[in-house]
Write a structure and sequence with these properties.
single chain, 389 residues, alpha/beta, Aspartate Aminotransferase, domain 1, 2 domains, four-stranded antiparallel β-sheet, 14 strands
């Protein structure tokens, strides 16, 4: 059996998009990127979409946007609640902006926030909550809204693994003040490297346009929410107003993004068909906890967590999978509090992290992508049941 973690979804259409850009002579960010941004915003139902060079850059830009807005900006020392299980660059921008993280446990079945633990962790110091829709699975958005109530708490939604997921007809990545997306090779659409930030807030949009490109005014419309621009294009070409970055994507990535976005509905249909087969085999498995779907997941991958108390070790499972040609990975970073990166964080743990510890020590995931995996999933169940008997 060969069951890789991911495969390429590129074909002749994507190759043609790249060669068209090469032939145009415009390789840096231009019309193709702008076109993809408009299409992506329309797909999600957002007002604005700002493309960047990776999903990690999208997270950095999102936090920077919240730190530079005029009303209730995130400031050094402000408290942000984060889930214990996510990718490293969910947290890194928060540390880089001097924010204090309050780490909350996850639910062992959904792999997203344990809502009861989240409710206990929110307090009068909470200025922001980071939502991470792990492995394509949405958070329990209505319950989180109830937890927030009427408090002025910003939402930073990391949707890098969940493009196309929905809750009550609303696309994930649009529930927060800012939402982030990734177009890495293994994700739902792929643009080489690439990412996107979406928002409905005009000021945040203008902040993103400046912060993405050196902190200058060149891409800002006139008028805008940040500064009064002059009529002199020479002056405005190098007029800097914010401590920005160069997070701009390549024009080729924007062109490929438009092609891939057209194919996304078909990609999601196949991923969800694979997920239905996976549920048949693993939803009630006696030895593994499989992720429980909230809303309509876009099924980035399929997690398997050895149940607490099971005699097997994760390394036993990994060895079996490798021997049978199944590629697997840890469930993203596992418990982030167990990594040395936290030496660079200002943080505290809210309550205990028992579920996150279980994921960290006993969890893994296998791939899902836009190919019929019914044979691979069926054989995966057979191999695990036979070899771990």
């Amino acid at each position: 059996m060969t069951y890789p973690l991911a495969i390429s979804t590129w074909g002749a259409d994507e190759e043609r998009a790249v060669t068209d850009v090469l032939a145009s002579g415009r390789l840096s960010m231009g019309d193709a990127v702008a076109k993809f941004e408009r299409e992506f915003a329309e797909y999600l139902g957002s007002r604005y979409a700002i493309m960047v060079n990776s999903g990690s850059s999208a997270n950095l830009l999102a936090v920077a946007m919240l730190a530079h807005r005029r009303e209730r900006p995130l400031a050094r020392g402000d408290e942000v609640i984060v889930p214990a299980v996510s990718w490293s660059t969910t947290y890194a921008p928060l540390a880089q902006y001097g924010l204090r993280m309050r780490i909350v446990d996850v639910d062992l079945e959904t792999l997203n926030y344990d809502i009861d633990a989240l409710a206990k962790a929110v307090n009068e110091r909470t200025r922001c909550i980071a939502l991470v829709n792990l492995l394509g699975n949405p958070n329990e958005m209505e319950r989180i809204r109830d937890v927030i109530g009427g408090r002025p708490i910003a939402l930073y939604e990391d949707n890098c693994e969940a493009l196309g997921a929905e809750v009550n007809g609303q696309k994930t990545g649009t529930f927060g003040d800012v939402g982030t997306h990734s177009f890495f090779f293994s994700h739902h659409i792929a643009t080489m490297e690439g990412g996107m930030v979406v928002t409905d807030d005009e000021e945040l949009h203008h902040l993103a346009l400046s912060l993405r490109a050196h902190g200058w005014t060149r891409q800002l419309p006139s008028p805008n929410r940040l500064v009064e621009k002059s009529d002199d294009p020479f002056y405005e070409s190098f007029n800097f107003i914010l401590p920005g970055y160069n997070l701009r994507p390549l024009e080729m990535s924007g062109a490929v993004g438009s092609v891939q976005l057209q194919k996304l509905p078909d990609f999601l249909q196949v991923r969800r068909a694979n997920a239905a087969i996976f549920r048949e085999h693993f939803a009630d498995h006696p030895r593994f906890v499989a992720q429980r779907e909230i809303g309509a997941s876009s099924h980035f991958g399929f997690s398997l967590v050895l149940r607490p108390g099971d005699r097997a070790r994760r390394e036993d499972v990994v060895s079996v999978l490798r021997a049978h040609g199944v590629e697997c990975r840890p469930v993203v970073a596992g418990n982030i509090a167990r990594h040395r990166i936290v030496e660079h964080f200002d943080y505290e743990v809210a309550g205990t992290l028992e579920a996150a510890d279980c994921v960290h020590e006993r969890g893994l995931y296998v791939g899902n992508y836009a190919t019929d995996l019914s044979e691979q999933i069926t054989r995966l169940r057979d191999v695990l049941d036979r070899e771990l008997a």
